[in-house]
Amino acid sequence: MTDLPSRRTFLGLAGVSAATLALGTGAPAHASTPGDVPADPFRLGVASGDPEPDSVVLWTRLAPEPLAADGHGGMPRRPVDVHYEVAEDSQFKRIVRRGHAVASPELAHSVHPEVHGLAPGREYFYRFRAGSSISPFGRTRTAPARHDQAQLSFAVASCQAWYHGHFTAYRHMAAEDIDLVFFVGDYIYEYAINSANLWREGVQLDKVHDAEVRTLEQYRLRYALFKSDPHLQAVHAHAPWVSTWDDHEVQNNYEHVGVTPEDFERRRAVAYRAYYENMPLRRTSLPHGPHMTLYRRVGWGRLANFSVLDTRQYRLPGKSILGARQEKWLHDGLRASSSTWNVLAQQVVMAQIDRDMGPGQTFSNDQWDGFRAERERLLALRTPNLVVLTGDIHRNVAAELKADFNDPESATIGTELVAGSIGSDGDGTRRDNYTDLWLSNPHVKFYDGRRGYVRCTLTPSQLTSEYRVVDYIRRDDRAPVSTAARFVTPAGRPGLEVQ
């Protein structure tokens, strides 16, 4: 892992002070009078995330004109007070917490207040006020107490290219009875949007979107475009999110194409800042120039220990996908875990995937296959009830993690659930050009090329995973949802049993 930039370098790259960043997390301050706030500023919705037994982080970003080309969403270039309320009921008759945070132009008028003093393992409702406008309410949930073994229902999603189709999968996810959403990467895409890739029918875009995203203003605008989707907003308001990124939040595969290392560092800095501005993240994830600590743990009582990974920022090609510090943090946490289930929420496929259907072997170096020694060290821990949640490939895949991937008879030591994309690649099909290749690997038990998500139910005795898919997304958002496959993984017996 590279050294962190100095404070001077940080200010030069990101253009914002630590004190300004702190205001949006709920530090005491006063900003402006109610009359300074334009009408209807909550057009990007509300969100919550990273629940703990006594707290949760809330989020909103003021943007009365979300698609304003300057990236400021139609807000004046001055700070604004944003008040919040947390209640036990959706009518806000039993309010348990009130507070405020300062929405500053330096953070695109986003706020991330962390609300403490909540009861463990219970549902809450929240809303914001700015000026005379009140936001839609959101529903959130705290994690259970440390020794609780309460059941958990969650969804896994990734890869939401807005321009490739409607977020129909989110329309259905918003109707699911879930406690958490794990988003495992590619929340936005940096590509220019034009007639070649705008497959979402029924929409028109200004030419300002027909440019590869490179500047802070462009990243802010791209988030606003994606977050303008009502179904995405509905899922954010429906349950707390635990989010990590992949590559397209900055650039495809971090390729450094056509730029100097210094220019790419600057691009990372503004991309990381925009990511923080637009996600329900705690102050521990405040960006420092081209560095942002996103790997973290989320506990769910004694039921589950979730390790949220960052497999992009610390890569050394051919050597490490996590970086030495994150790898040690992960191994130490897994060894110390007393939870029934140990779950990794991360980006790229961990199972070995031989892409040569003949006698040879060919692997993708972008996935864990390009870092086999690191994967072997991780799997050698023999972590009890290991489950890996993955995205990236725009396909639904269920695989068993093996002690020796080249020996189908070797022990199964974990389970991998790969969520198909929400929108990327447009309409999918059950079978496609990659079906036979993936299924030729005997530890891959399921493959489906349609859009969708994975819904999981976790109890002390088993994990049930359901692959929820829609048949089309390009022409409209009305496709029904169906369950393409359903698996059970009993506690103490890793693998996939078809239901």
Quick take:
This protein is an alpha+beta fold and 499 residues long.
Question: What level of helicity do the residues show?
Answer: 10-25%
Q: Rough shape?
A: globular
Number of helices: 9
Tally of domains: 2
CATH topology of the largest domain: Purple Acid Phosphatase, chain A, domain 2
Report Rg. Answer: 22 Å
Question: How much of the residues is beta strand, in percent?
Answer: 25-35%
Total E-strand runs: 23
- By secondary-structure content and strand pairing, the structural class works out as alpha+beta
Low-confidence stretches: 1-14
How does CATH name the architecture of the largest domain?
4-Layer Sandwich
Mean pLDDT: 94
The strand line-up of the biggest sheet is 12-11-10-20-21-22-23
CATH H-tier superfamily of the largest domain: Alkaline phosphatase D (PhoD)
Calculate the terminal CA-CA distance, rounded to whole Å: 43 Å
Question: Layout of SSEs?
Answer:
Elements: H1 7-14, H2 18-23, E1 46-52, E2 55-61, E3 80-87, E4 95-103, E5 110-111, E6 114-115, E7 123-130, E8 133-134, E9 138-141, E10 152-157, H3 168-173, E11 180-183, H4 216-227, H5 230-238, E12 241-243, H6 261-278, E13 296-300, E14 304-308, H7 324-336, E15 341-345, H8 372-379, E16 386-390, E17 396-402, E18 412-418, H9 435-439, E19 444-448, E20 451-458, E21 462-470, E22 481-490, E23 497-498
Parallel strand pairs: 10-11, 11-12, 14-15, 15-16, 16-18
Antiparallel strand pairs: 1-2, 2-5, 2-6, 3-4, 3-7, 7-8, 7-9, 10-20, 13-14, 17-18, 17-19, 20-21, 21-22, 22-23
